[in-house]
Amino acid sequence: MPASGLTADDIANETIKRLQDRPGLSALLAASLVQAMDDSRNFKSTDIVWLRLRELHNLDSNQCAQLLEATKSNTQIYWAKSAVDGGRSYSRVICDFLRAQPGGATIAADVDSYELYLTKA
User: Could you tell me the residue ranges of all domains in the chain?
Assistant: First the structure.
């Protein structure tokens, strides 16, 4: 442990918190986390990114659309379950998340269609 008493995780958490608290940086953080979900290549990465992304409330319509598309096409999201959301599938959790985002209204019909697909699958 460093002399300051902070671990690398502590520093990373504080950095993320500061990014979230600054409007200009928060938008960039959202874009980065959405891209990280899209690029996720394993369940562990999906879980780690989701822990941060789920705390944001500022996704625009393009980010919402990108996250929905990633949820549909990335098996590391589609087949995974979110431990922090009671073991619900990421597909369901992300639909709820998108509905609560500022940009979510723009893709609401797409989210509804995807949830209908999930119900029938």
Answer: 8-120
